[in-house]
Design brief:
With 308 residues, the chain is mainly alpha-helical. It contains 13 helices and no strands. Helix content is 77%, strand content 0%. It is globular.
Length: 308
């Protein structure tokens, strides 16, 4: 079987596996809700709605930062991407993650940039680079959270070792060529990753977004009266989001993120509170995506036309 024929087959198998894992995650969450329904009911009865507004604003800041960094990637490629317009492309594209398939956040964001005048190859390259550095930053936050909270410290130690080895390998021209040859079989946009120093800088600049997302989840936890350390939340939030991202074919990582969050928070919270917090956090970030898309669209409409 040729590489061109093998790629769609592998993508289809990965998508099927992702759907199965997602359904298993949903089943786990539903089972927890049913078996712990009294505990879940008590948790939601204590929910402080005002606190959720603060959580939503923190989440909105996190997503706006990621969108702004993506905008800068377009600009550094020499394209006109005014923040007011580009952020509307970003947030509208974000809504694509709720469509089954896993590729729609990339396609949606990139195609909106193309409609805004960015050449298609650069739009997709910048979007792919944004996704890679965003989730590399998530992995980095997992390592930091695991060590600072001393939760699964081995994860942090091994993770930082993997980052160091990966950076050293990618900095070597010969090894980088071999890595890109492999990556090019998956995506022809892999050439966007050819600058190790820039890749590292972009990864580090995404860290504040994950800190804000973790703070948002911590505030949501306080709305339930749950007591969980912020450093521990760095680990749990980033790990659950990363799990939802790597399992392809599941819209927005639904089920996967919640089950991962519930399992990881099980040591600090009771199962009922953990699953309640996971679901409430999901609702908060859906609201973030919808509010961000609405506000960004309204702001973009006030932007002066650049056409002559």
């Amino acid at each position: 079987m040729s590489n061109s024929n093998r790629r769609p087959l592998l993508a289809k198998l990965a998508s099927i596996a992702g759907v199965i894992i997602g359904l298993a995650g949903v089943a786990f969450v539903v089972r927890t809700l049913l078996t712990k329904r009294d505990e879940v009911g008590d948790a939601f009865s204590q929910l402080n709605g005002v606190t959720l507004i603060a959580s939503l604003l923190l989440g909105l800041c996190a997503m706006t930062l990621i969108g702004f960094l993506w905008t800068r990637m377009l600009v550094t490629r020499g394209h006109d991407a005014p923040p007011r317009s580009a952020l509307s492309w970003y947030f509208a594209g974000q809504l694509g993650k709720y469509v089954p398939g896993g590729i729609w956040p990339i396609v949606g964001r990139a195609e909106l940039a193309v409609r805004g005048g960015v050449p298609r190859p650069d739009a997709y390259a910048a979007t792919g680079l944004s996704m890679v550095t965003t989730y590399l930053a998530a992995a980095l936050t997992i390592c930091l959270g695991s060590l600072l909270s001393w939760t699964y410290p081995l994860v942090g130690i091994l993770g930082f070792a993997a980052f160091a080895l990966g950076f050293l390998a990618f900095s070597n021209a010969t090894l980088r060529t071999k890595v890109l040859t492999v990556l090019n079989r998956v995506s022809p946009r892999a050439s966007a990753l050819t600058e190790p120093r820039r890749l590292l800088i972009l990864t580090v600049t995404h860290l504040p977004a994950w800190i804000l997302m973790s703070l948002s989840t911590s505030v949501t936890a306080s709305a339930f009266g749950a007591d969980i350390g912020i450093m521990h939340m760095f680990f749990i939030t980033s790990a659950s989001w990363l799990a939802g991202f790597v399992v392809v074919g599941v819209p927005g990582g639904i089920g996967v993120r919640e089950s991962a969050f519930t399992a990881l928070a099980g040591e600090a919270l009771t199962p009922g509170v953990a699953v309640s917090l996971a679901l409430a956090s999901r609702v908060v970030f859906i609201a973030v995506d919808l509010l961000g898309a609405l506000v960004a669209h309204l702001i973009a409409r006030t932007a002066p036309s650049t056409k002559t």
